[in-house]
Amino acid sequence: MIAALDHVQLAAPEGSEDALRAYYADILGMTEIPKPPALAARGGCWFQAGPVQLHLGIEQDFRPAKKAHPGLRVTGIEAYAARLAERGAEVRWDGDLPGHRRFFSHDPVGNRLEFLERVA
């Protein structure tokens, strides 16, 4: 039986770790967490915010997915969107999900991310 989602892995091209750190840590406010030594040798980086983990792994012939994405629940979505925009990240609002405020952004290598908050 599945009990919880442990993490989401996104792909990234070789050599993109510094750009990923700038986006996920500096812009999104996540904390970089250490990879186990055997996995660290493969490149990439891992990030965490509360119980949410995103793993960025290096993929040869990387191409970002056009539709696939993690959906990240946030609180204070207006302020969070402003934080991203102030730091130069794309914020594209979408009103198509009933009962939610949400927007999309792309990381520096083109991975699509959805940020959403329930509304009463």
TrEMBL record:
Q: Report the residue ranges that make up the VOC domain in this protein.
A: 4-118
Query: PROSITE patterns this protein is in?
Result: VOC
Q: Which Pfam families match?
A: Glyoxalase_6 (PF18029)
Give the highest taxon in the source lineage. Bacteria
PANTHER family given in the database record: FAMILY PROTEIN, PUTATIVE (AFU_ORTHOLOGUE AFUA_3G15060)-RELATED
Specify the protein name: VOC family protein
